[in-house]
Design brief:
Structural class: alpha/beta
Radius of gyration: 21 Å
CATH topology: FAD/NAD(P)-binding domain
Family: Belongs to the tryptophan 2-monooxygenase family.
EC number: 1.13.12.3
Pathway: Plant hormone metabolism; auxin biosynthesis
Enzyme class: oxidoreductase
CATH architecture: 3-Layer(bba) Sandwich
Number of helices: 13
InterPro entries: Amino_oxidase, FAD/NAD-bd_sf, Flavin_monoamine_oxidase
Length: 395
């Protein structure tokens, strides 16, 4: 039986089939041979923005990366000290072969320095209509990769950020992008002004849907409609330490064994799986309607709700062995407001092409929502950055 990754297990394959590797997608880019602008402003320091900055710097282009939040990474976020391994509060799984890490930085040698694990859980359970069921058949079809001693954040911190660190401006939410003059002018809510020949906008699609950035001239109506057609629901992650393990490798709630990525999803899992940890760390990952009951609660109440649910399933063991918990509520992050994009209205690829269309060949777009068949993944965001940089350098 063919193995599938968590990403493919959760989502319906798009019209062109299973996702291709980044290497194939980028094999003909030739980005470093094109004529290039002298300066590019990048809005957003998440996976796509950082990757775009890295590639442009390698191509000899001056960049400025303007980030609204107080830290880089966007939905790539790390927590140290909670466990005896760094915890991924955001993106966690590598939804492709580990070789994709080399593709992201255009350097396969990084694989020598990054230890990954084969994420192949053996114990699966589901909780449906108040009944706990064994679902170990899933181990025959489900395979994935994860970092062992680092995180997605650590990967960017080590291999990408050093190239662009001095060009990153934090705590600088962008208010407007004016591309009507000889240069594109980016203004922040703090009054900062950045000018460039081109601009790459790599903010979460929710920020564009909320009109957080004003474009002058305004964005074409068809492009604006396409952006508003992207669905990005609620999202939350919780990590709980217990003094004793009582849970399986993976517990899926409700329709989780059948649901596609575009639907509601909630699972708890052994977050220490394959990490060589001596601690018992359980993770909760919930998106869309399944995340709704959590995202409106305080962090304390989120923990209490989860422990109560686990007590019901496992006879009070969660309360008995509870040590501590931490919550990452992505729906409350002011410059993100959700989990990841998972669907477009009507024809997905037509909408994606509409969104990707640059504004007068001067304002370009990148991000996980534009990752094509790798949408909703970190490497999809990076693939989008590669493709957008190619367009910028060729324009």
């Amino acid at each position: 039986m063919t193995e599938i990754t968590r990403h493919l297990f959760l989502r319906q394959c798009l019209a062109l089939g299973l996702s291709s590797s980044l290497a194939a997608a980028l094999s003909a880019t030739g980005v470093f041979g094109a004529s290039k602008p002298s300066k590019v402003v990048i809005v957003g320091a998440g996976a796509a923005g950082l990757t775009a900055g890295y590639l442009l710097r390698r191509a000899g282009v001056e960049v400025q990366i303007v980030e609204a939040a107080k830290q880089i990474g966007g939905r790539v976020k790390r927590l140290k000290g909670f466990a005896d391994f760094p915890v991924d509060l955001g993106a966690e799984w590598i939804h492709d072969e580990p070789s994709v890490l080399g593709d992201i930085v255009d350097d396969p040698s990084v694989l020598m320095d990054v230890e990954t694990i084969d994420y192949e859980p053996q114990q699966f359970q589901s909780w449906v209509d108040g009944r706990l069921k064994q679902q170990n058949w899933l181990r025959r079809v489900y395979a994935e990769y994860k970092f062992k001693t680092t995180t997605w954040y650590g990967f960017f911190e080590r291999f990408i950020v050093p190239t662009v660190r001095d060009q990153i401006h934090l705590n600088s939410p962008v208010a407007s992008i004016d591309y009507s003059g000889s240069q594109v002018v980016v203004k922040t809510k703090r009054g900062q002004v950045f000018k460039g020949d081109k601009v790459i906008v790599s903010v979460p699609v929710t920020m564009l849907q909320r009109d957080a950035i004003r474009f002058d001239p305004p964005m074409p109506k068809a492009q604006s409609r396409a952006i508003r057609g992207v669905v990005m629901g609620d999202g939350i992650k919780v990590f709980v330490e217990f003094s004793k393990r009582f849970y399986p490798d993976v517990l899926i709630f409700d329709r989780g064994t059948k649901v596609a990525l575009g639907g509601d999803y909630k699972t708890v899992y052994d977050a220490a799986f394959g990490k060589g940890s001596r601690r018992h760390i359980l993770g909760l990952f919930a998106v869309n309607a399944q995340a709704g009951p959590y995202v409106r609660l305080s962090d304390r109440d989120v923990g209490a709700k989860l422990i109560g649910e686990l007590d019901q399933i496992y006879g009070g063991q969660a309360s008995r062995y509870y040590v501590k918990h931490v919550v990452q509520n992505w729906s409350k992050e002011p410059y993100i407001r959700g989990s990841y994009s998972y669907d477009f209205d009507d024809a997905e690829f037509d909408s994606m092409a509409e969104i990707l269309a640059p504004l007068q060949q001067r304002v370009f777009f990148a991000g996980e929502a534009l990752g094509g068949r790798n949408q909703a993944t970190v490497h999809g965001a990076c693939q989008s950055a590669h493709q957008t940089v190619k367009r910028v350098l060729a324009s």
